[in-house]
Amino acid sequence: MKKNTQALIDSDNTKEIKTRIPAWLYPSTLEVIDRASETAGCKSRSEYLERAALFYAGYISGQDALAYLPPALASVLHGTVQDTENRICRLLFKQSVELDMLMNVLAAGMEIPEEQLRSLRERCVQNVKRTSGSVTLDAAVRYQRGGD
Fold first, then answer.
1. Kind and range of the H or E element at 44?
2. Residue 55: closest CA among 67, 46, 47
3. Rounded-to-integer distance, Cα 109 and Cα 106, Å
4. Interatomic CA distance for residues 65 and 34, integer angstroms
5. What is the spatial distance between Cα 127 and Cα 139, in angstroms, rounded to a whole number?
6. What is the C-alpha radius of gyration for the chain, rounded to an integer number of angstroms?
7. Which residues contact 40 (CB under 8 A, 6 or more apart)?
8. Residue 26 to residue 34: CA distance in whole angstroms
9. How many CB atoms lie within 10 A of CB 53?
10. Tens-place pLDDT, residues 37-56
């Protein structure tokens, strides 16, 4: 590309030389740029086009995606994830309490030998892994009755 004019600018405390380049745009595109540059607080079309080019280059590269999300959207996403995490933690806590109560009731009413308990734990770990945690009371009853 042919360099027409150059201007010395200070970009992020480093001296850079701006280069003028030709750009062919439709009049409708220029109207969009003019409206958007006012909203973006740009002083010129050149400033708007430079910001847009840097934004698009970052978007294409996929690096630091949060820098290209509007702050409000990033905040909403963060809040939603945080709320979901808190809800899951509360539910897991409640489930653990109920499970502990159930285990204590069973332990009080049954005398299970230590070896049989270890064997059951191993079998249950394998069952949970095999079914990806999708265990049912029906399957446990079938197993206890001699099926599998």
1. none
2. 67
3. 5
4. 26
5. 10
6. 32
7. 48, 51
8. 12
9. 10
10. 999 999 999 999 999 998 88
| DSSP character at residue 25 | -
Judged against a pLDDT cut of 90, whether residue 146 lies above it is answered with no
- Residue 37 near residue 45 (C-beta atoms within 8 A): yes
Res 114 pLDDT > 50: yes
Question: Pairing between strand 6-11 and 14-19?
Answer: antiparallel
Q: How far, CA to CA in Å, does 130 sit from each of 7, 117, 118, 124, 147?
A: 67, 20, 18, 10, 17
Which pTM was predicted? Answer: 0.43
* Residue 133 to residue 71: CA distance in whole angstroms: 37
Tokens 């607080």 label which residue?
41
- Token pair 């990033």 is found at 74
- Which residue matches tokens 């069973």? 106
